[in-house]
Specification:
The complex is a heterodimer.
Chain A lengths: L18 H31 L18 H13 L6 E5 L6 E5 L5 H11 L3 H15 L4 E2 L12 H12 L7 E5 L5 E5 L5 H18 L3
Antiparallel strand pairs in A: 1-2, 3-5, 4-5
Helix pairs in contact in A: 1-2, 4-5
Chain B lengths: L9 E6 L4 E6 H4 L6 H12 L13 E4 L14 E6 L8 E6 L3 H7 L4 E5 L6 E6 L2 E6 L8 H12 L4 E4 L2 H4 L6 E4 L3 E4 L2 H6 L2 E7 L10 H14 L31 E2 L6 E2 L11 H4 L13 E5 L9 E5 L11 E4 L6 H5 L2 H4 L4 H22 L7 H14 L10 H8 L4 H7 L3 H11 L3 H8 L2 H10 L11 H7 L21 H8 L9 H6 L5 H14 L21 H20 L24 H10 L5 H23 L4 H4 L27 H15 L10 H6 L3 H9 L8
Parallel strand pairs in B: 1-6, 7-12
Antiparallel strand pairs in B: 1-2, 3-4, 3-6, 4-5, 7-8, 9-10, 9-12, 10-11, 13-14, 15-16, 16-17
Helix pairs in contact in B: 2-22, 2-24, 7-23, 11-15, 12-16, 14-15, 16-17, 19-22, 22-24, 22-26
The chains are: A mainly alpha, B alpha+beta.
């Protein structure tokens, strides 16, 4: 499509379109923007549904190859329209890089876990997650928690990372208790005292099973 | 008399002594007590005056359900069986509860309850085909297990028949025995009562339907709403592994996950990440896989009860279990997998590879389930496992004082092929031999295991004059061990102060067995952060007419903070709801739903759901508060029955006392209310009772309901009788 604002080569006044043509052009432009928006949103939602977060950078690459200006318009449209309220950005805690996801399928806390998992810093992953659990619920985190998806860490690796963590000042708040079945549970002493962590962990890992809810 | 929906209008009474059956008009006689335990308490109050022997023909046995049974109300498969209890040292009233499909079939046959009285001259079963009731002689079934009895009754009555039966344990009046339906759903404690009546089974075929007062559209909307709020087992609302849709993750009983399969299904079924908005995946959520991930490959599916979308029974197929002479397929849940407590110990699996140890554990699950469910034994939340540990430990000098029983019994246990020998070898034939010892009450040790526990210990403590000398200290030794914690009347610790501190303890004061009350413990264990639980409780209770700030009643599991008014209100609410679930036919293991899995609701459930279902089904409209008041009424009649059995009004002293293990004074170095334990100060327990009694309208000094309270509940007759018996507190 010809750029209507482009000057003519001979310096004459720019061409102007008839009102009908101008309207048609605007409609086509809006349609193109709408398709672009839908493409982006659909991709983010589809990926979220598959438990993946999306880097905004993928839309500048094949197969999308969208221009930066086009994408700026998409982000503005997403922010302005309530029907896209599920599309959010969650930042990587270490790099600050933002990723997109649909909270309809993939909520912020899970996105945060995925980002920690892909950060290639298992010590940070373990410590951050332990801190979250100690603060939010509050509870101590059994080491086997990190065997689960999306972490998928082998138990021996988990213990190796904890050993590394022990030597790092920045993680000095991460402590451990061992409950009566031998399970090691981690907690942050910013949020839990040792006796409280022990009481809660003992219930979750041992006593609740002995108590047999049924 | 207005016509209501929900009820069939007819209650069946069977007198086994006269071999007659009669029909009673439910709403003439029991309209104020609805059904289930409420009806059971009323029958006992009216008809069990002066009965002290639970095995007397005069002890009525009431099979009860309620107006929501068979209506399609979610999680509505409960049957409550009420009688004076052989498990209680004073034979005080208690109920056993079973799921399955028995109660719904009974409703479809046209019955709101079955009251069994008297004693047959020989073994019989009751055959109910809609209105037709027959008492059928069955000497050929006496001495057989539940499996054969059930199969024979089904063979006689047809494939759609639902059966409740007892095994040899019930026949032999074992206190720790069950009545069972569907091969795995058991009501604990009442098997011996059924056996004492020479009643082997009840078979029911129902072809009718239930009238619902509300329009189909309104009823459907209500059920749909409930289905949106349902969680997983025990109303867990947070999955126990990270999932993309889930804001929270917990150790609650929502087990479905990506990569977690019913591995023995053909083809295997992935439970997956069950979005809470997807009703079609509710049945996958509760994949308990009790022995751990190893059991997944042996799981065929999850099973459950009538009208319940949450499947909490795990169906296993463990082919190698067949070598122990049992069917390798089995279904059960939690302590129903009895082998896990008895044989899953380090001694037995020592020296085995992890793989072999896991497999053997699973085989023990299957063998133990078949043992207990065929003999009809009651695990009673590990009481019998602890009894075994007691006997074994006593002989081996591990911890216990050895009871004074004939030396030959110890010799037999230690002989090659004896129980101790089998146990130490990890031979799973131990489980069947153990079950036989209990079911047939073999020797003094068998009698002890058969229960009631407290009676057995008391007998050993003092000895039998002229027969055996006592074993002083044996009772204290049993009490002192942390693995055998029990409540004040000889029942096991189960959702007491460890689940909610004062609230859990108060809930447990009222009953004559473990309270079977999950209303509060479910909420504490639902997986939500404590702060969210408190916010929801604040809003949900206030919305339904309760005091503000009910979140202050919440203590996380294994912790306890100081008593307050909200905790007394919460305890009252929980006992009311337990009785209401048991008297309407809903499952107290699932209901009520204070919380839901829905983020958009702030995870709030709706504590008015049950009263809405009740109102819609029956046409008897009730507010939530009025509904709860009815539950307190049922509970209060249970209290009056207990006073009558104790022949005392002094419940505060004789019945409601906190066990020693729950008192902080008995734990050197422990500090109460700091979030590190669930212990409480003795003086504060007295404050808790004061507040609780005040909420119930009971006399502070005795813990007994006052005349004014009884009359306000419409139970003037109960007040009069208590007064006549000298059991009514003086009016203030």
């Amino acid at each position: 499509m010809k750029d209507v604002a482009e000057e003519s080569v001979d310096g004459a006044a720019p061409e102007t379109l008839e009102p009908e043509a101008e309207a048609a052009a605007e409609t086509a432009e809006a349609e193109e923007a709408r398709k672009l928006l839908e493409t982006v949103v659909d991709h983010i939602r589809r990926e979220s549904r598959a438990a993946h977060i999306t880097s905004p950078a993928v839309f500048a690459e094949e197969p999308f190859s969208f221009e930066e200006e086009q994408l700026d318009g998409v982000w503005d449209a997403i922010a302005a329209d309530p029907q896209y309220a599920d599309i959010v950005r969650t930042a990587d805690e270490k790099s600050g890089e933002e990723f997109l996801h649909s909270t309809k399928y993939l909520v912020v806390p899970y996105a945060r876990l995925l980002l920690r998992t892909q950060a290639d810093d298992p010590v940070f992953l373990i410590a951050s997650t332990v801190r979250d659990n100690s603060e939010i619920y509050p509870r101590a985190t059994p080491v086997t928690f990190f065997e689960l998806d999306p972490f998928n860490l082998p138990l021996e690796e988990i213990f190796a990372h904890i050993t590394v963590m022990d030597g790092l000042e920045e993680y000095s708040d991460i402590k451990r208790v061992t409950v009566t079945n031998g399970m090691v549970c981690l907690y942050s002493d910013r949020y839990l005292t040792e006796p409280r962590a022990m009481a809660i962990a003992q219930w979750a890992e041992v006593d609740s099973h002995l108590n047999s809810n049924q | 008399m207005p016509t209501y929906g929900g009820w069939t209008g007819k209650t069946l009474r069977v007198n086994l002594t006269t071999r007659t059956s009669t029909v009673e008009a439910t709403l003439d006689k029991y309209k104020d007590f609805w059904g289930g335990t409420g009806m059971g308490y009323k029958v006992l109050w009216d008809e069990a005056k002066g009965v002290t022997d639970p095995f007397s023909p005069d002890n009525p046995l009431i099979f009860g359900w309620g107006p929501l049974t068979g209506t399609g109300a979610p999680c509505g498969g409960r049957t409550c069986i009420t009688s004076l209890s052989p498990q209680h040292p004073y034979a005080a009233v208690a109920s056993g509860h079973m799921g399955g499909h028995f109660s719904a079939e009974a409703k479809y046959a046209g019955w709101d309850g079955i009251i069994v009285t008297g004693k047959a001259s020989g073994p019989v079963y009751i055959a109910i085909r809609d209105d037709q009731v027959d008492i059928v002689d069955c000497p050929q079934l006496w001495g057989s297990g539940i499996y054969r009895a059930t199969a024979e009754v089904v063979a006689a009555m047809g494939g759609s028949c639902q059966v409740a039966a007892i095994g040899q344990a019930g026949e032999n009046r074992v206190a720790q025995s069950v009545i069972m339906t569907g091969y795995s759903h058991s009501a604990g404690g009442q098997g011996g009562v059924m056996g004492s009546k020479n009643l082997k089974a009840i078979g029911i075929v129902g072809t009718g339907s239930i009238k619902i007062a509300a329009s189909k559209k309104d009823w459907r909307a209500l059920v749909d709403n409930a289905m949106q709020l349902v969680g997983s087992n025990n109303q867990a609302v947070v999955p126990n592994s990270p999932q993309p849709w889930a804001e929270y993750v917990s150790s609650a009983r929502w087990y479905a996950a990506k990569g977690k399969y019913w591995g023995a299904a053909n083809p295997p079924v992935e439970t997956g990440t069950c979005d809470p908005h997807d009703r079609q995946s509710v049945g996958y959520r509760c994949f308990k896989s009790d022995p751990g991930a190893f059991a997944e490959q042996f799981t065929v599916r999850m099973d459950g009860c009538h009208s319940c979308p949450v499947r909490c029974h795990q169906a296993l197929n463990v082919p190698t279990a067949a070598k122990w002479g049992v069917d390798p397929t089995a279904a059960n849940t939690c302590t129903g997998w009895w082998g896990r407590g008895l044989m899953n110990n380090a001694k037995v699996i020592a020296g085995l590879s992890t793989q072999d140890a896991n497999l053997k554990t699973l085989e023990a699950y299957v063998v133990g389930k078949h043992m207990t469910d065929d003999f009809g034994l009651h695990n009673n939340y590990g009481t019998t496992d602890r009894g075994w540990a007691f006997i074994y430990g006593a002989d081996k000098g591990v911890t216990w004082i050895k009871p004074n029983v004939p030396a030959a019994e110890w010799t037999t246990l230690n002989a090659p092929g004896g129980l101790f020998d089998l146990y130490e070898k990890g031979d799973l034939n131990f489980l069947m031999a153990f079950g036989k010892m209990m079911a047939y009450q073999v020797g003094e040790l068998g009698k002890f295991l058969a229960g009631p526990v407290e009676a057995g210990l008391n007998k050993w403590q003092t000895g039998v004059p002229g027969v055996t000398t006592g074993s002083p200290g044996i009772l204290a030794a049993y009490h002192a061990d942390t693995s055998v914690l029990w409540w004040a009347n000889g029942f096991p610790k189960h959702h007491s102060p460890e689940n909610g501190g004062f609230v859990g303890a108060l809930i447990n004061t009222g009953y004559n067995r473990d309270a079977q009350n999950h209303c509060w413990s479910n909420y504490l264990s639902n997986g939500l952060p404590t702060a969210v639980q408190r916010t929801i409780a604040d809003a949900e209770f206030a919305k339904n007419g309760y005091m503000a700030g009910m979140g202050a009643a919440i203590d996380p599991n294994n912790t306890c903070t100081q008593m307050n008014q909200q905790k007394a209100v919460a305890a009252r609410w929980a006992i009311a709801r337990k009785e209401l679930m048991d008297s309407t036919g809903l499952c107290s293991w699932m209901w009520p739903w204070i919380a839901s899995p829905l983020k958009e609701r702030g995870y709030a459930g709706d504590i008015a759901l049950e009263s809405k279902l009740f109102s819609a089904a029956t046409g008897k409209t009730m507010s939530t508060k009025a509904f709860d008041d009815e539950g307190v009424k049922f509970y209060t009649l249970q209290r009056a029955l207990t006073m009558r059995s104790f022949n005392s009004m002094h419940m505060r002293v004789l019945h409601d006392q906190l066990p020693p293990w729950a008192k902080v004074e008995n734990h050197a170095g422990a500090v109460a209310y700091m979030g590190a334990n669930y212990y409480m100060k003795s003086a504060d327990w007295e404050t808790a009772l004061d507040l609780f009694y005040a909420e119930l309208g009971y006399d502070q000094a005795t813990g007994a309901p006052t005349r004014a309270t009884l009359e306000a509940m419409g139970m003037t007759d109960v007040a009069d009788e208590l007064d006549d018996l000298g059991l009514l507190p003086a009016s203030v």
